[in-house]
Request: fold
Amino acid sequence: MYSEIRQYTDTHHVTLVAVSKTRTADQILALYNLGQRDFGENRVQELMDKKDALPSDIQWHLIGHLQKNKVRYIAPFISMIHSIDSPELLETVDREAKKNQRTIDVLLQFYIASEETKFGMELSEAASLLDSIRYKALKNVRICGVMGMATLTDDMEKVRQEFRHLRHIFHTLKKDYFAGSDHFSQISMGMSGDYRIAIEEGSTMVRIGTALFN
Ligand SMILES: *Cc1c(COP(=O)(O)O)cnc(C)c1O
Reply:
């Protein structure tokens, strides 16, 4: 499946993040050898265990809920953190990035699903974060866009509406806070079951696991 999906995302100029959680280093290497470089993990410990066994030019994405006390492990190398869901987490990432003398690219995660378990912010929370003086003092994080997960459902019209909502959030933030910033350009949405819809609704980055590795 990898080649078909990769061709599809390349054709649409969308970044494919291969979600490799629960997969072995050998399975990851097989996709690496086909040219895949962006991989996503949702647990810090699992990421740390795999990273050292794999080529150093892999771009690792942290896509799952991130605890503040785990940030220091990934700060030296992480390529992008998709799951910033509080001002405190953003501040921690900034602090750890600074210790490593680097800037870390992040996405703000939004709550777009109708499920209780999903993490993320509301637009109003993000706006007050971006308006705050504390945020303006952060020099070692770069907010590159938004991320969201749709409800796990067969109702594709509902999924489409949720993706549309995330795109609306992206454009609102772009207009109000990032009009002059070329780097604020990413909408991370779409998984195995819904990536085509996500791309139709403006996704620039899809996170696909099951469909790639099966
Ligand atoms: C597991 C996971 C994915 C990939 O899900 P699949 O259905 O296997 O494609 C995408 N995003 C996040 C945040 C995940 O945890």
